[in-house]
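All the exercises in this workshop are built on plain-text protein records. An example says more than a description, so a record of this kind follows:
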Amino acid sequence: MAADKNGDINLPRHIAFIMDGNGRWAKKRGLPRTAGHKEGAKTLRRLIRDIDSAGIEYATFYAFSTENWKRSDEEVSALMKLLEDNLDDLVNYENENIRLRFIGGRERLSKVLQDKMAEAERRSKDRTGLTVTLAINYGGRDDILRAAKKSAELINKGFLSPDSLTEETFESLLMTEDIPPVDLMVRTGGELRISNFLIWQSAYAELYFTDVLWCDFGKKDLDKAIGEFSKRNRRFGDAK
């Protein structure tokens, strides 16, 4: 990996992952799509530890989008059951100082899943290591729309004036209010788009696309993505 002038690796503070390719991984093996999602959950658990070991502060994973409800009832039910079952395992990062949080609308989720999400956040809220955020029933446009409605409500109630609505104020109304912007967005599976994921938060993110399917994505692939990030010159609109 590339290093800065002091010899330190230039690490992204926040990595976001679009975990794509589970269905294709299963199809290649003659398995149902649900088998790919189960394998993808194993990859997620392994990779969280690799990310933590790498010294990354924040990692956000696109687990279920607002558009994923369009899939078959069977697949949606299987995905929801998988999320319910695997949240128990994610809470078990007891000795690794990993904090868990969730973004996305919870109103369409089962009470079982909502309760598990709340319990995971409660149990890990005081941990100071890697913050893992799972985006469940999340969409970037929906996130921005909800924030816009909140800002309008604050203005209508007199708590905020239109002239005082800054980017910083608006960001504080997003679901990621306590998370820094995305530095590196990784998409597996070979597709070249961000699919309505963290639109505002990724305004200056470095994008990294790989043909590796999510189920096959491992530590060497993570290292490769971080290595590519470390080589890039992030100017944030500056001409330098």
Q: What stands out?
A: Residues 14-141+180-231 form a domain with the Undecaprenyl pyrophosphate synthetase fold (CATH 3.40.1180.10). Residues 1-7 have pLDDT under 50 and may be disordered. The CA atoms of residues 177 and 239 lie 29 Å apart.
